[in-house]
Amino acid sequence: MADLSILLAFYENMYKARRFDERLWDAYVDGKPLGMTHLGMGEEACGTATMMAFRPTDAVCPHHRSHPHLLMRGCDMNTMLSETLLKSTGTCKGKAGEAHFVDVSKNLYVLGGTLGPCYTVPVGFAYHFKREGKGNIAVAYSGDGSTCEGPFYEGVNMAAAFKLPVLFIIQNNFFAISEDFRKMTGLQRLSTRASGFGIPGVTVENGNDVEAVYDAAVKAVEYVRAGNGPMILEVMTWRQRGHAVNEPGTKYKDPKEQEFWMKRDPINLLSTKLKEQYGVGDEQLKAIEDKCEQEIDEAWAFAEAAPYSQPEVAMKDIYWSANKA
Amino acid sequence: METKKMTYMQALRMAMDEEMARDDKVILLGQDVGILGGAYGVTGDLYHKYGPDRVIDSPLAENAIVGFGIGAAMYGWKPIMEIMKMDFSMVALDPIVNHLAKYRYMSGGQVGHMQAVVRTAIGGGTRSGPHHSQSIYHLFAGFPGLKVVCASTPEDAKGLLKAAIRDKDPVFFCEESAAYRIKGEVPLDPDFIVPIGKSRTAHEGDALTVCGFGTAVLKATKAAGMLADEGIDINLIDLRSLRPLDLDPVVDSVKKTGKLLIVDEFTETYGITGEIAFQVTQACFKDLKMPVQRLTLPDTIIPAGPVMEDWVMLSPDKIAAKVKELINA
User: Rounded to two decimals, what is the model's pTM?
Assistant: First the structure.
């Protein structure tokens, strides 16, 4: 069982990520100018718990639905929100938007909108770590949908063949936009793919239980760091809303499943546990929540006041050699 | 400068050998590059010289090969990725154009440089058919963030590949498979470099300006020799690099000759010939005595059968005939 300070850190991060996303949703409804954004309400446990299990020197590659991951990794909220709002103060100067968020200072690389490279680029990182010999690992996050793409097979196979330290984390929220993975594959769980690569695959059945995810992540990291080669960790969770802000997610979900998972909301699960098993009082949680609200208020004030990058920036960073090819 | 006569393929290997000896961070990966020494034999004995950690036999997975190279490059390695034929690069298009070319830009410059080379064999004339013959280099030249070069001679094969390996930006390096066995004098100096983005004059003259890349230039060089025997000297320019594209010598020449023929072993429409024609026309509209002309493959697919393929591909005879036609026009 994780100690209380870790659980409180999880609570803070999950609450912060939830409110971060809700504020983006509100901003969209209010017609504020946003970049592309993918909200993860209900999925906060996966990014929050797993990120606690890594070293700062590991290379982590969250996928596009990754606000909890970024916040837990310690990315600055001002620059993170600025990138979502496409401002010059964004980590990528507003060039990437959050679906391609990069923070080199945190060894954090979102590998972009086409998804396939989520599985292959980390294999190159892992080559570096193996040659470096310090026990660092590469972490390749994905959703369930992109496991249907070819690069999943190419990347996992290559990591397995070369016995490279890559932890593949499938954050399975059941849906690729509208498509249920159970209809798009012949499977009920995706970690079973691992046996086809000759590597271990583990599923956390209640991926909204942050403690269960953390325990599984710690074990998986131990295995990969020890030089055993890659493994797949699948975290079952549920996207409470739609794919993006423009789509509520109501057309294709079974209402019973929606209800089942809404009862397993990761933040409610943890607050209940904290109160019932650890004697944490409402005031203590309220203090954490107030702190998060304040941080988000400040980030919005910062990002909204910031200017957009100007046209000359659009012509920079194309070539290192600044060759106007 | 001391030189040695060697094949285009040996010159490529020498370039990689010298750069791997010079810099421990240079690694080589791709299908068959190791124990076999390359599907065409380009990498030769490098596996035995530098070992399996640096000369990496990869699964048959072009997409992952490029992804691996991108990841390694982002952590300071200098990968040379081999994709056997350019036709196969189509299955790795996403990592090449969306990541290799864009990642530095998308990171707002945080990723300092993406020092990586993708090597691939191009070109027809080898009876290999529709999936092993295309020179589709212009596709990659259409993506800012990439550099795209094409070597036509053994000397350039060595000098340009060394420049590509040392370049801090990603370079797509096109090798003419029909030229692998041609021989030429190659400088032995380990610091011999052919800078990327500088055209080369392959034949001096003022009867007509001709420009192109790779085997089209090799064939035009033969045509230039045949024409010279008849007293016609063309100004032939090997452009060497599609991006950056150095058209200054072409423009200077066209200002004197008033006529430009672009030779290219891609099909007639939608290739790089249109881009060159546009740029040259912009730069010397008033000097042109006729619209810019091109000699390319017809708009078809490169077939394997010998009679068909020979009819489709360029040849010195075809180029010489076209030059005469234009001179007399």
Answer: 0.96
